[in-house]
Design brief:
Elements (H helix, E strand, L loop, with lengths): L1 H7 L13 H16 L23 H10 L7 H12 L4 H5 L9
Helix pairs in contact: 2-3
Length: 107
Amino acid sequence: MSGFFSRTGIHERRFCKKEESAATLAIKAGKDALESSGISASDLGVILVASMSPDFTAPSMAAILAKELFGRRLHCTGYQCDLATALSTAWRWQEDFFRPSEKKKSW
């Protein structure tokens, strides 16, 4: 395992039991972290969730975790991601985005 740690930085690997999933592990880890820190979920401003092995495409693991920890539904962030992508690349195509009434360049 020491070779694995030196290459990845991961100290421990866990495997799900038959009745467990990536989301159930995340929920347990989140609840344990809140309990050991002495704060409540409502004190948190942001929770980031990333997984290479989510249980489902939809709902996302972040939505499942938010429901379990906060008792709230989390909705899709697709619009925000698309908007951020559009704005971050807009400088490349400024003329097309900001001067639509003018004749576009021919490529």
